[in-house]
Structure formats: structure tokens, C-alpha cells
Design brief:
Blueprint lengths: L4 E3 L6 E3 L12 E4 L5 E4 L5 H6 L15 H12 L3 H7 L4 H8 L7 H10 L4 H12 L1
Antiparallel strand pairs: 1-2, 3-4
Helix pairs in contact: 2-6, 3-4
Length: 135
Amino acid sequence: MSGETIKCGDCGIETYLPAKCDVCGKPFVVTTGSAGELRVSCPHVPEAVKLAAKKPQGESSRDMVPGFGAAVRARRVKSGLSMHALAEKADTHQTTVSKIENEQRAPSLALALKLAAALGVGIDTIVKDARELTE
């Protein structure tokens, strides 16, 4: 592990920066973004490709179900829950719920299941709602 740490902007937890890429084995390049945030990138991925690929951010790069966030928001509002209340019921952060609802982050399967359960429905219902919202 590298001796450097980075603090998550969402939850505030500090974690070690990886020393090298698992794919190519080259050391990561640490830069500072325009808003002052630290960015870690691998030399084997050209910057243009990284900027063009607008993937949701989260624990990993997951594929997002189109409309999933909107479906979660619609169910939450229908249930009369605040974002904070849904986050507590799903054992996550309000910021995470916000990012999911705004389709800035794709939830893991485990989190998607927790959100569905907190909303009193199955994951299949949320996915069905998402499909209907995007048709």
C-alpha cells in the first residue's frame, strides 16, 4: 500500500491510494482537479478517453439502469419519505441517495436491494418503474 491517503468527499472516510494499476502495473498519477479535488488516473488510459466516458461514480464502475434513480425518487416521494429517511432505512448516506436519484451514481446490487426494501417493494418493481419512465 502507498503511504498516501485520500478522503472520500461523500462519507469522509480516509483510504490508502493505490500504488499501481491492477491492469497494467504502472504507478498511478495523482493530479488536482479544477475544483481542488485529488484525481487518481492510470497512464494506460488516455485523458480524452477518461473524459469521454461519463460513467457513474461509486465503489466501482457499474452499468446504470436508465431511469433507476428517477424510479427510486418517484417511489420515495410516493411513500412520503425524505431523502434522509430513505438513506437511514437503507443504511446508507443521504448523499448517496441523492447521487442515485440524480443518476450520477449507479448503486451496487446490494444497495439497490436495500433501497427497494426500504421503499417496501422488490427490486423488480423499481426496474419495471425505471423502464416505464424511460419509454
